[in-house]
Write a structure and sequence with these properties.
The complex is a heterodimer of chains A (about 375) and B (about 375).
Chain A (H helix, E strand, L loop, with lengths): L5 E2 L10 H7 L15 H21 L6 E4 L2 H16 L6 E4 L5 H12 L3 E4 L10 H7 L4 E5 L13 H10 L3 E5 L18 E5 L10 E5 L25 H39 L4 E2 L10 E5 L5 H10 L2 E2 L15 H5 L4 H4 L2 E5 L6 H24 L1
Parallel strand pairs in A: 1-11, 3-4, 3-5, 5-6, 6-7
Antiparallel strand pairs in A: 2-8, 7-8, 9-10, 10-12
Helix pairs in contact in A: 1-7, 2-7, 3-4, 7-11, 8-11
Chain B lengths: L5 E5 L4 H12 L3 E8 L15 H14 L3 E5 L1 H17 L6 H20 L4 E3 L4 E4 L2 E4 L22 E2 L7 H10 L3 H4 L15 H8 L10 E5 L4 E5 L22 E6 L4 E5 L5 E12 L9 E5 L7 E9 L2 E11 L6 E6 L2 E12 L11
Parallel strand pairs in B: 1-2, 1-4, 2-3, 4-7, 8-11
Antiparallel strand pairs in B: 5-6, 8-9, 10-11, 12-15, 12-17, 13-14, 13-16, 14-15, 16-17
């Protein structure tokens, strides 16, 4: 590779931070105990786990018993939706509400609830990717068991007014879940002031390893566990806890919040530069969700007359890592359900490239993308015209 | 540093395309592997995961081992239109389609080629048993594996960008190379003989899924003899192909075969082995991979994959149509299949069979 590779896929995953790795190491070494054991080794592990729970709780404005560690965002989302639905359907609530632009973990869990008898309701969206409030008022009524809204969309970065909508949904007796996987570290989260009942975070999006996430479960909220077995985490999540990863996510969460303001300001500036640079050279590029309030780390751009699959391949071969819509099991790029739900023209949807900024993004990276991307786009368009 | 030439290799996860990629790496090309996602069984076929996932995984493993990038290219909608829809449409009009030809023509050597353009790859490669020598397509060294029957439809200009690395090997050599290069993942994978989007060989199921419920091609109709006598009933002419013996009534003095399908009467026509013979062929959508031959030229033809070569004379040519007269009669000339023209091992071109001629068409003989 002639130049340094450019990683612009932080919304997919981030590198484990050095401090996090260091914090985890003892639990792969001398402090290997099982937190359920009553002996010295067990107590040491238990102490670390308890402490990790407290620290993650503090990062979310939550109490330790409100934090349930999971294997990641997908498990946390499933636990929230299905756990709450199964607990509430007995009480006569029949509907589950969500948006059509959720992560597949939510959509899959909602469909499962549908197979278990729930009425699935999907909120209307504005063209910029924000929940339409009239649709919200209409669909979130006293039949709703769970209402789930992703705080920051993972593909286009738009922010939903979760605190305001959560308050409304609570007033109608629904449980509220928010997938905050892309929001953590970007949006102020405070469970004491905001009225969601469940909130999902995923460690590897902010410097912790893959395989650890957490679900905030508001005290007093009953959910059915997804798995059955031991009594770990009050029976909500049986199975020996991943102590090292829990320590890792706690450390990563604290570091992320401590640096949040400076980090967000830095990547917002780079994001703005990237968008301006692309638009200067490709004036008809469409940046999705630009009319809405957005998190600072995601740029989703479509250039008419290109296709994302070819462009991603060409970018990768030039050392630039970006992503397309959601990847299918095989790894092929399929048009994004998010863009489709926002009624984006199909040719634009199939041209979408997501670039997500983060710790590895420097001014130099952005310069390089501003140089390479328009050139590849111009080439792709020449080929389209030649057809 | 000398800039390496980039080649995009179509990798199915099978032994041929894997060895093709490995040979190109060995030869010093800048190799990029890609697996085409052409269809999705979804949850219909439980033992074949969505999107031929196993094939994709095998191709990816091979690329990881070769240290080259691997991508999955979604060509599903174009393949669906150019190949699967056509497949269904052809059966619906009483013909026996040959989807691999259209896949090569449209999917591999057109759509896939465009992906090569997008990444500045001058070359594309596949694991076909065929050779390109000085811009001419030639049969593969392994006569038994030769795949030129499926390649006649590609744009002639593409030949100058094609590399077919295993065309100079026989199958046993290819497998041996796979072992020698440590590609144990795929070295002994069985041949895929069936049509890729017909997972269990049951093509009629695809037709049932895609044709309207009351489609004539799947409705009952008469089985008749060439003299028009009704001798039985069938449950859809699309379930029959020329030369077939299964599913036709017995009790005849000699073995009977399907000799024709008449969609306008919904009839399947049966006849003797003799009636299956044709002495000439009319074919359409002619494509030449060399300069076009002329009326009166003698060529070799193949009317079915692996069928023996037959000698023939071109008796009519023009307007995308060709008619040939066969030196010796050929059995089961089937509309929808291909006729491919050869001069020794050179592939001249091909066309889709429109009809068989029972009688040999004679060229006007010039006065001596």
């Amino acid at each position: 590779m002639p130049t340094d590779p450019v990683y612009l896929d932080h919304a997919a995953t981030t590198p484990v931070r050095e401090e996090v790795f260091e914090a985890m190491k003892p639990f792969y070494g001398p402090r290997f105990g099982n937190p359920s054991s009553t002996h010295r080794w067990g107590r040491e592990a238990r102490a670390a786990l308890d402490e990790a729970r407290e620290r993650v709780g503090r990062c979310l404005g939550a109490r330790p018993d409100e934090i349930c560690f999971t294997s990641g965002g997908t498990e946390a989302d499933n636990l929230a939706i299905l756990g709450a639905w199964r607990a509430l359907k007995a009480k006569g609530r029949t509907a589950v509400v969500t948006t059509p632009i959720e992560h597949k973990a939510i959509l899959g869990a909602v469909h499962q609830a549908g197979r278990e008898g729930a009425t699935e309701r999907f909120l209307g969206m504005t063209a910029d990717g924000v929940i339409d409030s009239a649709s919200f008022d209409q669909l979130v009524d006293d039949e709703v068991a769970v209402c789930s809204m992703m705080w920051v969309n993972n593909e286009i970065g738009t922010i939903q007014p979760v605190p305001e909508l959560a308050a409304k949904a609570k007033a109608r007796g629904a449980f509220v879940h928010t997938d905050a996987v892309q929001a953590f570290g970007k949006i102020p989260i405070d469970a004491q002031k905001q009225q969601f009942d469940f909130l999902t975070i995923s460690g590897h999006k902010f410097g912790a390893p893959k395989g650890i996430g957490a679900l905030f479960i508001r005290r007093g909220t009953h959910i059915e566990p997804l798995m059955h077995g031991g009594t770990q985490d009050r029976g909500r999540r049986p199975g020996t806890e991943n102590v090292a990863a829990a320590v890792g996510i706690a450390r990563a969460a604290e570091l992320t919040l401590a640096e949040c303001e400076a980090h967000c300001a830095r990547i917002r500036k780079l994001r703005d530069k990237l968008e301006a640079g692309i638009l200067a050279k490709v004036p008809d590029a469409v940046i999705h969700g630009r009319g809405a309030e957005r998190a600072p780390h995601i740029v989703n751009v479509s250039v008419p007359g290109t296709d994302s699959e070819s462009l991603l391949m060409a970018l990768d071969l030039r050392g630039i890592a970006a992503s397309g819509g959601s990847a299918c099991q095989s790894g092929s790029v399929t048009p994004s359900h998010v863009l489709s739900a926002l009624a984006i023209r199909p040719d634009l949807a199939s041209a979408a490239i997501r670039m997500s900024l983060g710790v590895l993004t420097t001014d130099h990276c952005i310069d390089r993308v501003i140089e390479v991307f328009p050139a590849l786009v111009a080439k792709a368009r020449q080929l389209t015209v030649a057809e | 540093m000398v800039l390496q030439e980039r080649v995009l290799v179509a990798m199915s996860g099978g032994v041929d395309s894997s060895v093709a990629a490995a040979l190109l790496v060995e030869q010093g090309y800048d190799v990029v592997g890609a697996t085409m996602k052409l269809f999705c069984h979804g949850e219909d076929v439980p033992d074949r995961p969505c999107c031929s996932l196993d094939s994709v995984n095998d191709a990816r493993r091979v690329c990881e081992q070769l240290g080259i990038p691997h991508y999955v290219l979604n060509l599903e909608s174009r393949f669906g239109h150019d190949v699967i829809d056509n497949f269904v449409h052809e059966y619906a009009r009483g013909r026996t389609p040959i989807p691999c030809v259209r896949c090569n023509t449209f999917t591999k050597f057109r759509d896939f080629l465009k992906r090569a353009d997008a990444i500045d790859a001058q070359w594309i490669a596949t694991g076909h048993y065929a050779r390109v020598v000085d811009g001419v397509l030639r049969r593969g060294i392994d006569e038994n594996k030769d795949q030129t029957y499926f390649l006649w439809g590609i744009d002639r200009a593409v030949l100058s960008r094609m590399i077919l690395p295993v065309g100079g090997l026989d199958k046993a050599q290819t497998r041996a190379r796979a072992h020698a290069m440590g590609l144990e993942v795929i070295a002994e994978k069985p041949e895929s003989q069936e049509i890729c989007f017909v997972p269990d060989g049951d093509y009629a199921r695809i037709l049932e899924q895609r044709l309207p419920h009351d489609a004539p091609a799947l409705a009952h109709g008469p089985i008749i003899t060439s003299s028009g006598a009704i001798v039985g009933e069938h449950n859809g002419f699309a379930r029959y192909t020329i030369g077939q013996r299964r599913g036709i009534p017995g009790g005849f003095a000699s073995p009977m075969y399907v000799i024709a399908i008449r969609p306008e009467q919904r009839a399947v026509v049966i006849g003797t082995r003799d009636e299956l013979l044709g002495n000439g062929i009319v074919a359409r959508e002619v494509n030449w991979l060399t300069d076009a031959p002329e009326v009166g030229d003698h060529v070799c033809v193949r009317v079915r994959h692996r069928a023996p070569l037959a000698h023939a004379e071109i008796v009519r040519l023009g307007g995308g149509e060709i008619e040939i007269a066969l030196d010796e009669p050929v059995s089961a000339i089937t509309p929808g299949q291909s006729v491919v023209f050869y001069d020794r091992d050179r592939v001249l071109g091909g066309a889709f069979i429109e009809a068989a001629r029972r009688q040999r068409t004679q060229l006007p003989v010039l006065a001596a």
